[in-house]
């Protein structure tokens, strides 16, 4: 009976604030997951789960090293390189249509004339056979192949610049996420200390119930912001790792280690 009506309404408003912040956090999590899937080239409506006990570790390399690694390992640039090679081969095929085709000649003869010094004779040579030259058609195919090769070079350069800008953008977003996480953790530490102090004052009768509820709500909101900032950091790390072409989990390394152990086990038994 010590709580007045307005204090009860304040507690209800704080509970509503807690539910509203929780829904906002859920929507932000869904949006961040959709952005991650879209950056990975997957469907944004698919479900994505980040395991809490195995967080992603951000690369600690310099930005220049990250850009170089992305240019070496990113699948998009590998595909662009293969496209350039294919276009080069098409140009070579178009040039080959202008060249004559050469065939070898092997001619052996034998005579029964006993007065002949060399009754067996062999003649080896090369003869050229000119293919039919279709003038304008062959020239057009050659020009098309050269233009396709130049376009492949341009596409490769565009892919390089896109990957470089993507790595820079992802790296900068990661730095922003780290700063936001550090700020959120600091605010949570302050609100936690304030809540402990208010709880002690409430037990001594120095503050009323509304102040206690207010301190608890502010601490909970700060905690949710820490979780949201941590999730945002994980999304930024995953985006950067995807651009670098690195695996986002350690399962590949674990499988490789287990395979090496299994391969060395028979040799140890034989020894």
Helix proportion range: over 70%
**Unreliable segments of 5+ consecutive residues:** 126-135, 263-271
- Provide mean pLDDT, rounded: 75
- Computed CA radius of gyration, to the nearest angstrom: 36 Å
Order of SSEs = HHHEEHHH
Question: Which structural class should the secondary elements be placed in?
Answer: mainly alpha
Head-to-tail CA distance between termini: 82 Å
Q: What kind of sheet is the major sheet?
A: 2 strands, antiparallel
Strand content: 5-15%
Shape: rod-shaped
Strands, count: 2
Main-sheet strand order equals 1-2
What's the number of helices? Answer: 6
Outline the structure in words.
The chain has 271 residues and is mainly alpha-helical. The protein has helices at residues 5-39, 63-73, 75-96, 136-203, 209-244, 251-270; strands spanning 101-110, 120-129. Strands 1-2 form a two-stranded antiparallel ribbon. α1 (5-39) packs parallel to α5 (209-244). The model is unreliable at 126-135 and 263-271 (pLDDT under 50).
Q: SSE layout and pairings?
A:
Blueprint: H1 5-39, H2 63-73, H3 75-96, E1 101-110, E2 120-129, H4 136-203, H5 209-244, H6 251-270
Antiparallel strand pairs: 1-2
Key words describing this protein structure:
71% helix; 271 residues; rod-shaped; 6 helices; mainly alpha; disordered C terminus
Please outline what is shown here.
With about 270 residues, the chain is mostly helical.
């Amino acid at each position: 009976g010590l709580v007045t009506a307005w204090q009860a309404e304040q507690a209800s408003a704080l509970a509503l604030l807690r539910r509203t912040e929780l829904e906002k956090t859920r929507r932000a999590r869904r949006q961040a997951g959709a952005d991650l899937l879209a950056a990975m080239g997957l469907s944004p409506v698919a479900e994505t789960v980040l395991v809490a006990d195995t967080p992603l570790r951000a690369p600690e390399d310099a930005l220049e090293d990250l850009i170089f690694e992305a240019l070496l390992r990113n699948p998009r640039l590998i595909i662009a390189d293969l496209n350039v090679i294919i276009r080069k081969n098409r140009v070579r095929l178009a040039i080959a249509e202008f060249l004559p085709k050469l065939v070898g000649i092997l001619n052996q003869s034998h005579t029964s004339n006993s007065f002949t010094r060399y009754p067996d004779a062999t003649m080896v040579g090369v003869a050229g056979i000119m293919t039919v030259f279709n003038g304008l058609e062959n020239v057009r195919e050659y020009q098309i192949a050269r233009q396709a090769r130049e376009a492949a070079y341009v596409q490769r350069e565009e892919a390089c610049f896109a990957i470089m800008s993507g790595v820079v953008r992802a790296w900068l977003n990661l730095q922003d996420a780290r700063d936001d996480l550090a700020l959120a953790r600091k605010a949570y530490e302050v609100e936690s200390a304030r809540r402990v102090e208010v709880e002690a004052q409430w037990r001594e009768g120095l503050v009323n119930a509304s102040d206690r509820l207010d301190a608890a709500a502010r601490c909970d909101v700060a905690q949710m912001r820490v979780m949201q900032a941590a999730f945002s950091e994980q999304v930024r790390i995953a985006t950067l790792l995807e651009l670098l072409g690195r695996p986002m989990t350690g399962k590949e390394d674990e499988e490789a280690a287990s395979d090496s152990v299994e391969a060395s086990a028979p040799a140890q038994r034989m020894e």
